[in-house]
Design goal:
This protein is an alpha/beta fold. It has a single domain, classed as Rossmann fold (3-Layer(aba) Sandwich), CATH 3.40.50.620. It contains 6 helices and 5 strands; from the N terminus they run βαβααβαβαβα. The chain has a 5-stranded parallel β-sheet with strand order 3-2-1-4-5, sandwiched between helices. Helix 1 links the parallel strand 1 and strand 2.
């Protein structure tokens, strides 16, 4: 039930789940009443990064859904944040601060401010990422 609750939204690939993922989900849930997480589809990851995730989408969604901080999980099939908002009606979006100040996110912030959606940035966990893990494990 979402009525009367502050609804939050964040997205990610959540491949090779690690403490950075846990940090953003924990921090997000602490700042909303109901947290929806968009897990990026294998196809969207491949189109953006040129490679598929190690862990398939349905398994990544299951891992995320079973965390106590998460209320709902959806597949993120597009990078269009406005489309996500139209479908999910969240009040606040949580993002890693590695995106803060970029022209793309400045535009998203301005658009969302006009419809009453706040953007909250959290510190990026620089010492670990799925990319770093892939390099260590696979030498990529």
């Amino acid at each position: 039930m979402r009525v009367g609750k502050l609804v939050g939204y964040t997205t990610g690939v959540f491949d090779m789940f690690h403490v950075g993922h846990l940090n953003i989900l924990r921090q997000s849930r602490a700042r909303c009443d109901y947290l929806i997480v968009g897990v990026t589809t294998d196809e969207l990851v491949e189109s953006r990064k040129g490679r598929r995730p190690i862990v398939p989408l349905l398994e990544r969604m299951e891992v995320v859904q079973n965390l106590r901080y998460v209320d709902d999980v959806v597949a993120q099939t597009t990078m269009d944040k406005d489309e996500a908002w139209r479908n999910l009606k969240f009040d606040v979006m949580f993002v890693g601060d590695d995106w803060k100040g970029t022209s793309a996110w400045d535009a998203i912030e301005a658009h969302f401010a006009a419809v009453g959606v706040a953007i909250v940035y959290f510190p990026y966990t620089a010492h670990t990422s799925s990319t770093i893990l892939r390099r260590r494990v696979f030498g990529e």
